[in-house]
Design a protein that fits this description.
2 strands; flat
C-alpha cells in the first residue's frame, strides 16, 4: 500500500500466490487502521473532483490507467 509513500503499510505485507502454480506473484502491503482511515479520507476529499468529470472522460482515464498498470 502506498499511503503516502512507503512501499508497505504499517501492518506489513502479504505474499500473493498464483493459484495455478503456488508460486509467489508479489507482495501486497497491509494497512493498519490509521492508514485505512487516511486512505478513506483522501478518497472522500477527491470524490467531488472525480464526480465532476464527465462519465466518458472518466472511462478514458480508467482505460489509460489500466493500460499502464
Amino acid at each position: 500500500m502506498r499511503i503516502p509513500s512507503s512501499r508497505y503499510g504499517a501492518a506489513g505485507a502479504f505474499t500473493v500466490l498464483n493459484p495455478a502454480t503456488g508460486r509467489p506473484v508479489g507482495d501486497v502491503g497491509l494497512a493498519d487502521l490509521a492508514e485505512t482511515d487516511a486512505a478513506i479520507e483522501r478518497a472522500h476529499r477527491a470524490y467531488p473532483a472525480w464526480r465532476a468529470i464527465a462519465p466518458g472522460d472518466r472511462a478514458r482515464l480508467l482505460r489509460s490507467f489500466a493500460s499502464v498498470v
